[in-house]
Amino acid sequence: MFDDSSIEVERPLAPALWKGWRRRCPKCGNGPLLNGYLKVRDTCPVCREEFHHHRADDGPAYVTILIVGHVMAPLLLWAFVKWRPEPLVLFTIFAVGCVGLSLYLLPRLKGALIAFQWSRHMHGFGAPPA
Question: Is 34 helix (H, G, I), strand (E, B) or coil?
Fold first, then answer.
């Protein structure tokens, strides 16, 4: 006969990514996804969705570096050509900018990557309950 447990429920990508970006559970959107700055909770305290099997690894760090580099490098060139500041002033301003932008993006990109995995039933998120 037909087994209903093998049917994967459709999980829309855009709402899941938005919830992950906000560092919320991609399923319910209410529970916190992260415990602290980057540690992922084992389960959502609201809906009990399991997150222990996620595979974020180094992906959020790579994407953060990619975005920060592509944003800050043109700004650095533009600021240098427009104002010709002292090198130490330019370095100080852009070092603080790079660190600040990296610290802002890293947990949000990690949440979005975990939400992407959840939405696409990857790495155990699509496994039927035991």
Answer: strand
Q: How far apart are the first and last CA of the chain?
A: 20
Residue 82 in 3-state DSSP? Answer: helix
Task: Check: CB of residue 67 under 8 Å from CB of residue 105.
Answer: yes
Q: Is 117 helix (H, G, I), strand (E, B) or coil?
A: helix
- Any bridge partners for residue 123, and if so which? none
pLDDT in tens, 4-61: 555 667 899 999 999 999 999 999 999 999 999 999 999 999 999 999 999 999 999 9
- pTM exceeds cut of 0.70: yes
What count of other Cβ atoms lies within 10 Å of the Cβ of residue 89? Answer: 11
